[in-house]
């Protein structure tokens, strides 16, 4: 009997050591400011959720699966821009990286400033019917950890890492102004530089001051109303991504319930009158009955949304590499969806041109993020 107990204990200890090695060995995890560690583990299936319009932000079936990033906009030409019949895009392999996307509109030719490590995944993403990018609410999420899932075009790409960090950023702005490290190294894409500590921390403080005023359960980083124009060998976009904050009615009521219960306990401790205590008990009972019977639905935290919606420059100050990548993903995906819809032959050609392009740097994206 003792021998069996000893063998069981040995096996349990071995399991702990193996698990620790799997998750903690150098090179198997990403570190965010030394505080959060996201581990490379067996990945769930790619994220296959379509956002078919802003109305889906009010649907629990959507936000509970995409507590993350989803860009659904299809760009429209700016009101003062004429779209010529010869509008087209090409991938110019012989050009320098960062100048390979050629856009032609009549006699105006643009070589867009977007590097391959962003451009190639965005083209593949825009070609897909699913437009949700990253979510922490994968099928294996539980009370202890988030299961990180990616659109197939962003899994194991540096752009996927940047999009993931944009989703995580508001969890802890004191940490997420820094880029994550992998095996003690900070992978950077072409044209990227590490954020400036001073300006990033100042922006983080401003974001914190705004968000501490509101109560929300989660958010979706999304976009809408993206327009473009081509003038003087330059492409301009209008419209920026934004965070949509939400909470369910039950979560909101539970917060109210806990506040009311705390008040009731304080009233009892302070020996308030019988009328006050009876009133506390009655309100608690009414709210508890409401919570137990109501159907769960999503509530937009409108005040928080309004406070942050036009603050994209603040986000760029907070973490320029991350939010530059986010801006490019939203803008160019919207443009490519327009091209795909209006110029299907042009779109088919660029898909052929980028088919065998090898995107660098190559990274392994994490899939396991402990909640504590």
Which residues sit in consecutive blocks of at least 5 with pLDDT less than 50? 1-27
The rounded Rg comes to: 24 Å
Taken together, the total number of domains comes to 2
Strand fraction band?
15-25%
For this entry, give a set of tags.
372 residues, alpha+beta, 2 domains, three-stranded antiparallel beta sheet, 11 helices, 41% helix, elongated, disordered N terminus
Give a short overview.
Helix content is 41%, strand content 18%.
Explain what the structure shows:
Strand 1 and strand 2 (36-39) form a beta hairpin. This protein starts with a helix and ends with a strand. The protein has eleven helices and 17 strands. It is an alpha+beta fold and 372 residues long. The chain has helices spanning 2-24, 60-63, 116-126, 158-168, 197-211, 249-269, 274-293, 302-308, 312-318, 320-342, 344-353; strands at residues 29-32, 36-39, 68-70, 76-77, 88-91, 101-105, 108-112, 132-135, 145-147, 149-150, 181-182, 218-222, 227-231, 234-238, 242-248, 298-300, 368-370. The radius of gyration is 24 Å and the shape is elongated. Helix 4 crosses helix 10, helix 5 (197-211) crosses helix 9 (312-318) and helix 10 packs across helix 11 (344-353). The protein is 41% helix and 18% strand. The chain has two domains: 32-248 and 301-370, no CATH class; 252-293, no CATH class.
């Amino acid at each position: 009997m003792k021998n069996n107990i000893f063998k069981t204990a040995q096996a349990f200890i071995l399991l702990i050591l193996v698990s620790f090695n799997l998750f903690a060995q150098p090179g198997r995890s990403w570190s965010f400011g030394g505080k959060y560690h996201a581990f490379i583990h067996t990945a769930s299936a790619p994220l296959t959720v379509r956002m078919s319009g802003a109305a889906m932000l009010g649907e629990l079936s959507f936000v509970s699966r995409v507590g993350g990033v989803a860009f659904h906009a299809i760009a429209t030409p700016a009101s003062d821009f004429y779209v010529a019949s010869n509008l087209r895009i090409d991938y110019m392999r012989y050009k320098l990286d960062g100048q390979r996307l050629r856009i032609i509109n009549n006699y105006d030719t643009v070589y867009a400033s977007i590097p391959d490590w962003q451009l190639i995944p965005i083209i593949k993403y825009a070609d897909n019917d699913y437009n949700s990018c990253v979510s922490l609410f994968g099928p294996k999420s539980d009370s202890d950890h988030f299961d990180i899932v990616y659109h197939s075009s962003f899994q194991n790409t540096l752009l996927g890492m940047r999009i993931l960090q944009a989703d995580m950023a508001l969890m802890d702005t004191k940490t997420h102004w820094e880029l994550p490290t992998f095996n003690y190294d900070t992978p950077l894409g072409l044209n990227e530089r590490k954020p400036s500590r001073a300006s990033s921390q100042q922006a983080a403080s401003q974001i914190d001051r705004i968000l501490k005023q509101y109560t929300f359960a989660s958010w979706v980083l999304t976009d809408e109303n993206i327009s473009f124009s081509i003038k003087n060998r330059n492409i301009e976009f209008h419209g920026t991504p934004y965070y949509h904050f939400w909470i369910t009615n039950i979560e909101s009521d539970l917060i109210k319930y806990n506040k009311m219960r705390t008040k009731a306990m304080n009233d009892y401790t302070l020996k308030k009158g019988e009328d006050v205590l009876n009133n506390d008990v009655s309100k608690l009972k009414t709210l508890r009955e409401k919570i137990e019977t109501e159907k769960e639905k999503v509530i937009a935290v409108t005040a928080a949304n309004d406070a942050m919606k036009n603050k994209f420059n603040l986000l760029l100050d907070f973490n320029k590499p991350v939010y530059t990548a986010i801006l490019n993903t939203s803008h160019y995906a919207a443009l490519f969806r327009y091209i795909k819809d209006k110029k299907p032959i042009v779109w088919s050609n660029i898909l052929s041109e980028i088919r065998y392009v090898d995107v660098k740097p190559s990274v392994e994206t994490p899939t396991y993020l402990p909640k504590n």
